[in-house]
Amino acid sequence: METNIIEDKQYPLQGTGVLTPPSGGGGAVGSSIQVFAPATVANVVCGFDVLGFAVNEPGDEVIMRRTNKAGITISKITGDDGRLPLNPAKNTVSVSVQHYLQSIGRTDIGLDIELHKKMPIGSGLGSSSASTVAGLFAIKTLMGDDTDASTLLPFAMKGEEMACGHGHADNVAPALMGGFVLIRSYEPLDVVRLPHPANLWCAIVFPDVDVPTREARQIIRNKIQMKDAVTQWGNIAGLVSGLFMQDIDLIGRSMKDVLVEPVRSMLIPDFYVMRELAMEMGAVSFGISGSGPSVFAFTRDEDTAKRITAKLQQHLTSIKIGSNAYVSTINDKGPRVIG
Length: 339
Ligand code: HSE
Description:
This protein is of the alpha+beta class. The chain has 2 domains: 3-196 and 332-337, 2-Layer Sandwich (Ribosomal Protein S5, domain 2), CATH 3.30.230.10; 201-329, GHMP kinase, C-terminal domain (Alpha-Beta Plaits). It has 10 helices and 13 strands. Bound molecules: L-homoserine. L-homoserine (HSE) binds next to helix 5. Its EC number is 2.7.1.39. One of its GO terms (biological process) is threonine biosynthetic process.
């Protein structure tokens, strides 16, 4: 079995054949690049830590330039209200890029990074993942490394571990690979791209309250009842079946979470009111995006998604909470070079 070793942590690779070790620097080496990487909705209600999908917007951008001096600098971060570190030893983008360079034996390279945050931090939309994935895709492309983007997954997981204390892959995998992704196993790492109905729309609303993932993970129960486990794995299997069968009704009735949502919903203002509003307006399903506070609804069309975001934002305004909203289909491409 192939193994990617990053510091003390091993990420054995097996399964789908998508993951292969990076070749690193096989092709032409560029000097500057600008990359966009998308936001993601992790968990997808019933699949805690094992399901996620990418959306078209929002997302983050990284500009990476080669420099003459070995090592990584971060010259600029915008859109973060001063919350993210410019110190390359403390920033998830530079740290994961450094891991990549180490793995290909190219720590002689000099790089300068600009990070442009185009999405809220601590929103439950995979903010740190989008930045990390943009940085990793930028260095991979600059190095002329033409292996599949999924080879960057172990490095991106290192970034997640640094950001919230746990290297979960349900944001970074869809951000890197695009589409709907199942983390079938963490040890060994085995990720599977899932199909999805083309007309599945996603309405996202971010209520402007801070819910750090690290803390949202700490409040989850460690032990669960067998009857709850049975409910949960029935729903996960139902959701995955619905995706394969293009059965939106099955997708909707499977998106129920008896393990995490009952606890985390307490961190989200009027979560159950928002759910009722969305379902009354024709949502297929409704739940927490990642660790929250963002919420999302699946719909069958763009118009319903737009009407739901407008209604939820109106409700949040009425309880004096600001919000952002996004409407998107599922992004099957993942990161892309934009300059
Ligand atoms: N699966 C992770 C969690 C996603 O729910 O904590 C974080 O965005």
